[in-house]
Amino acid sequence: MALSEHEKKALDQIAQELEHDDPKFASKLRSAPLRTKARHTASGIFTALVGFIVLLTGVAARTPALGIVGFTIMGVGTYLATMRVASLRLPRRPSDSPSMGPAEMG
């Protein structure tokens, strides 16, 4: 679906404002294409599902070693699926209100 001229101009304006307001975040968005991130997430989910199947096979066959291998594969798949998502998180800004530390909690 093609964008209208008005929509293209609005998106260009939003991109320019983002570049002006937060150039570091804008460069992060430009650095890695969305397809690469989606591919990493999809391969991580697939790996986690394979690990889950291996884990269930190990439980059904009453083979602890196979269950441990399946659990490990699930962990690796979960890590792969979430590691690219974590890089997109916005940095937290410090809060205006003072936080209470452990000594102040009473």
Strand content: under 5%
Low-confidence stretches: none
Shape by Cα distribution:
elongated
Rg, please? 22 Å
> For the residues shown, what is the average pLDDT?
79
* Category from helices, strands and their pairing: mainly alpha
Number of helices in the DSSP assignment: 4
Q: Count every beta strand, where a strand is a DSSP E run of 2 or more residues.
A: 0
Describe the sheet with the most strands: none
Estimate the helix proportion, in percent: over 70%
Question: How far apart are the termini?
Answer: 59 Å
Structural account:
- The structure is a single chain.
- This protein has helices at about 5-20, 25-30, 35-60, 65-85.
- It is an all-alpha fold.
- It has a domain at about 35-90.
- The chain starts with a helix and ends in a 20-residue tail after the last helix.
- This is DUF3040 domain-containing protein.
- InterPro entries: DUF3040.
- Pfam families: DUF3040.
- Keywords: Membrane, Transmembrane, Transmembrane helix.
Topology of this protein?
Elements: H1 5-21, H2 23-31, H3 34-60, H4 64-86
Helix pairs in contact: 1-2, 3-4
Keywords: Membrane, Transmembrane, Transmembrane helix
Protein name: DUF3040 domain-containing protein
Pfam families: DUF3040
